[in-house]
Amino acid sequence: MTDAAISIQGLSKTYKGGKQALTDVSLDVPRGSIFGLLGPNGAGKSTLINILAGLVTKSAGHAAIWGFDIDAHPRNAKASIGIVPQEVVFDPFFTPFEMLEIYAGLYGVAKGQRRTMELLRAVHLEDKANAYARTLSGGMKRRLLVAKALVHNPPVLVLDEPTAGVDVELRQQLWAYVRELNERGTTVILTTHYLEEAEELCDRIAIINHGRVVTNQPTRQLLQLAQEKAVTVTVDRDLTTLPQAPCFERTQIVGERSLKITYSKDKVNAGEVLAALQDAGLGIVDVSTHEADLEDIFLNLTREPAV
Predict the structure, then answer these.
(1) For the chain, how big is the Rg over CA atoms in Å?
(2) Each residue of 210-255: pLDDT tens digit?
(3) Number of C-beta neighbours around residue 90 at 10 A
(4) Separation of alpha carbons 293 and 287, rounded Å
(5) What dotted CATH number matches 228-291?
(6) What residue spans define the domains of the chain?
(7) Per-residue H/E/C for the chain
(8) Which of 104-118, 134-148, 207-221 has the lowest mean pLDDT?
(9) What CA–CA distance (Å, rounded) separates 303 from 299?
């Protein structure tokens, strides 16, 4: 058995008409991790997930889920993964209880081993067990999709934009449940456009752009790529000209007495920046700093045009 929950090697996909969605994608998702799969719209994330789900046929390469090759052992591979899709699609005339029972049956889960009410409680839908699914709110439908993906107790859970259109309270409830699942051993793969979520939740992040992996590394290590830091300083007099110093990368007046100075934190520190301002004859009244975050790194890595 491999140590990777999902192992992908040289995966490519070309659609009819020549559209190249994935090009030689290789990555491993460590078991027990929360793994972020990020990228702009059209980058190839959904194609990759659909290949793992068995909905799209790859053009080249190999993929294995929980040690089962998706071609050689498709049934075992599919049984090892649960996928929460972007689209909220299910039969509106079934109740949540009926829907989970049906899907458990499709996965071959014996009646005595089904966890339908347990899952509904976990996603805060126990009181809606016998309501028609069409009467549920958007947030409730999202949570029902999470429960549906878990009916066969898969070791790997893929969440494809799970909090799109979900309010803040429901988002927090969902992430609390995801953390709980992860603590119990479930490997979670997350795609999201809310980059602060990925930064907070994920142990490791891969970014895809134009169908290629542009980075794949631990979140903390990825954040260290951001060397730019900004400091906003309020000084003791009106500013008519920009102060200059070799340690300033960029300087911008943002108010009558406020400056925003960008510097490279691998070359200088904030103390040197403030000392340079004092050397220019400016008294410092107030200071605030801005650290580059995952959004800044994401934008830098996905700025390159398609080759």
Answers:
(1) 24
(2) 999 999 999 988 887 766 778 899 999 888 788 888 888 888 888 8
(3) 17
(4) 19
(5) 3.30.70.1560
(6) 4-223, 228-291
(7) CCCEEEEEEEEEEECCCCCEEEEEEEEEEECCCEEEEECCCCCCHHHHHHHHHCCCCCCEEEEEECCEECCCCHHHHHHCEEEECCCCCCCCCCCHHHHHHHHHHHCCCCHHHCCHHHHHHHCCCHHHCCCCHHHCCHHHHHHHHHHHHCCCCCCEEEEECCCCCCCHHHHHHHHHHHHHHHHCCCEEEEECCCHHHHHHHCCEEEEEECCEEEEEEEHHHHHCCCCEEEEEEEECCCCCCCCCCCCCCEEEEEECCEEEEEEECCCCCHHHHHHHHHHCCCCEEEEEEEECCHHHHHHHHCCCCCC
(8) 134-148
(9) 6
Instruction: Express each pLDDT in 251-292 by its tens digit.
Output: 888 888 898 988 887 788 888 889 999 998 889 999 988 766
Alpha-carbon span 259 to 283, nearest angstrom = 12
Contact 133, 145 (CB under 8 A): no
Residue reference for tokens 């045009």 = 305
CA distance 29 to 203: 10
Which two structure tokens, joined as six digits, stand for 248? 């300033």
pLDDT in tens, 171-211: 888 888 899 999 999 999 999 888 888 989 999 999 999 99
User: Whole-prediction pTM value?
Assistant: 0.79
Picking from 110, 290, 295, 96, the residue whose alpha carbon sits closest to that of residue 193 is 295
Average pLDDT, the chain: 89
4-223 and 228-291 share one CATH topology? no
What class, spelled out in words, does domain 4-223 have in CATH?
alpha beta
Tokens, residue 178: 């995801």
